[in-house]
Specification:
The protein starts with 16 loop residues before the first strand and ends with a helix. It has helices at residues 39-58, 72-79, 84-89, 108-117, 162-178, 197-210, 217-225, 236-242, 254-269, 317-320, 336-341, 365-380, 394-403, 414-419, 440-445; strands spanning 17-21, 24-28, 62-63, 69-71, 92-94, 100-103, 127-136, 148-157, 185-190, 274-276, 288-296, 306-313, 329-335, 358-362, 385-387, 408-412, 421-426, 432-436. The strands form 4 sheets. The protein has an 8-stranded mixed beta sheet with strand order 3-7-8-13-12-11-9-10. The chain has a 5-stranded mixed beta sheet with strand order 15-14-16-17-18, sandwiched between helices. The protein is of the alpha+beta class and 448 residues long. A hairpin with a 5-residue loop joins strand 5 and strand 6.
């Protein structure tokens, strides 16, 4: 996948304890820009991933998972010099054996490496994958950005057909909408291929040279290395200059123009609103032809549009990382942190979470000893329950059941342990009945 957004916000108020290590004080806290996923936030992530997988599988994507560490050259050769990721944000290390590795800053280059390494070009083409997991960028921590964040990617490798662009976009849109996003739109552009891009870059370079004195130093350097990166600049002065920059669409060769026209026709047929953004190039150097970003309205406090996903074609990436020939491919990356933190997110519950209608209460050492056996009977019957086996008193366990609004409790005490039975209490009417264990499952399945 190609890029990614993250979100949420760094919790600056997290409580910190201190320990002494080798006579020095050190705060016990996660690394800057990273955090622990727990409780409801963890389930929110898991629920999103399950929904995204469900949609992706329907459209023909299959799962793949690549290592978090890659050969550094795989990343630098694919993303390219002059990008913030390579120049400023990569986490790199040298192993004791002398290997230069990098924590993956995105998913696309590792996926193409896997495609080449495992000979996937011999499979029926295209091959379509979904993959997810954490990526790492040494970015400035702020609201909306973490240094470890999560992406969900969709990729189709092995076909140059425009309908593959459409499938990736449509699947991504469906995932976002199922998660609760509304008023989605796409900024889209075509930056051409090797047949026509050189003419555009020549014209773009000439334009920037005319404004060289107004360009910030960072963009002057980009002009020497990769002029296209200037279109992606975050410098305010450069943004003003970019407004009058030549557009890539005017330089498209007939094949690229046809491809782009077909992609737009698919979007129109699917009633997907789009805006042709002539300055859109995406933040990575491996893109070719189609590039796009998907935004949603009113995601932040100021009601401004927020980018939720982005991607495009990367038909030359295979050669860039050392492959013997080009592999046409297209993909998209979804910023999961940003979606989970959005006010519109549906708080999708993972399938593993089922609201229990039974609360299991045990009283006495004999009952506690046999409790796990009873719970195992219920688990195998797929009856979701809640319990607090560490508690001893009836009152504390009933209080938890009431707080959780669970309609029925099973009370298993010393007498019940001896009688091989359990008390089933209706929490709304306070009525209860003793049921023998061999008949318990049948009895519970009849409860409303």
């Amino acid at each position: 996948m190609a890029w990614l957004l993250s979100t949420g916000g760094i919790n600056e108020s997290k409580s910190m304890k201190k320990i002494t290590i080798k006579n020095r004080s050190q705060e016990i806290t996660s690394p800057k820009g990273m955090r622990d996923l727990m409780n409801e936030e963890y389930y929110s992530f898991q629920g999103f991933f399950e929904k995204a997988q469900e949609v992706a599988v329907y459209y023909g994507f299959k799962p793949i998972e690549t290592p978090m560490l890659e050969q550094e050259e795989i990343i630098t050769s694919s993303i390219g010099k002059g990008t913030d990721i390579v120049d400023k944000e990569m986490y790199t290390l040298k192993t004791k054996g002398g290997d230069h590795l990098a924590l993956r800053p995105e998913h696309t280059a590792p996926l193409m490496r896997a495609y080449i390494e495992h000979g996937m070009q011999t499979m029926p083409q295209p091959v379509m994958f979904y993959h997810s997991g954490p990526v790492f960028r040494h970015d400035k921590p702020q609201r909306g950005r973490y240094r470890q964040f999560w992406q969900f990617d969709l990729d189709a490798l092995g076909s140059e057909k425009s309908i593959m662009d459409a499938i990736v976009i449509k699947t991504c849109m469906n995932i976002l909408e199922e998660a609760g996003a509304e008023n989605l739109s796409i900024d889209i552009n075509s930056i051409g291929d090797k047949e026509c891009r050189n003419g555009y870059i020549k014209e773009l370079t000439s334009y920037y040279k005319k404004h060289i004195n107004q360009l910030p130093s960072v963009d002057r350097e980009r002009l020497k290395i990769n002029p296209l990166r200037i279109l992606d600049s975050k410098e305010e002065k450069t943004k003003e200059i970019n407004e009058s920059a030549p557009d890539s669409i005017s330089f498209l060769c007939p094949a690229c123009k046809k491809h782009f026209k077909e992609v737009l026709e698919y979007l129109e047929e699917m009633n997907i609103a789009y805006n042709i953004n002539k300055n859109l190039v995406r933040g990575l150097s491996y893109y070719t032809r189609t590039v796009f970003e998907i935004t949603g309205q009113g995601e932040m406090e100021n009601d401004a549009p927020m980018a939720l996903a982005g991607g495009g074609r990367y038909d030359y990436l295979a050669r860039q990382i050392g492959g013997k020939k080009d592999v046409p491919a297209v993909g998209v990356s979804i910023g999961v942190d940003r979606i989970v933190a959005a006010p519109w997110y549906k708080k999708l519950a993972p399938r593993i979470l089922k609201k229990p209608k039974i609360y299991f209460i045990q009283l006495g050492s004999e009952a506690k000893l046999k409790s796990l056996n009873i719970i195992e009977i219920l688990r195998k019957a797929h009856i979701p329950i809640a319990q607090s086996l560490s508690k001893d008193s009836l009152g504390s366990q009933l209080a938890i059941a009431e707080k959780l609004a669970i309609p029925y409790v099973l009370i298993f005490g010393v007498k019940e342990a001896l009688d091989n039975a359990v008390i089933v209490r209706d929490m709304s009417t306070r009525s209860q009945e003793t049921v023998k264990l061999p008949k318990l499952l049948e009895y519970l399945k009849e409860l409303k």
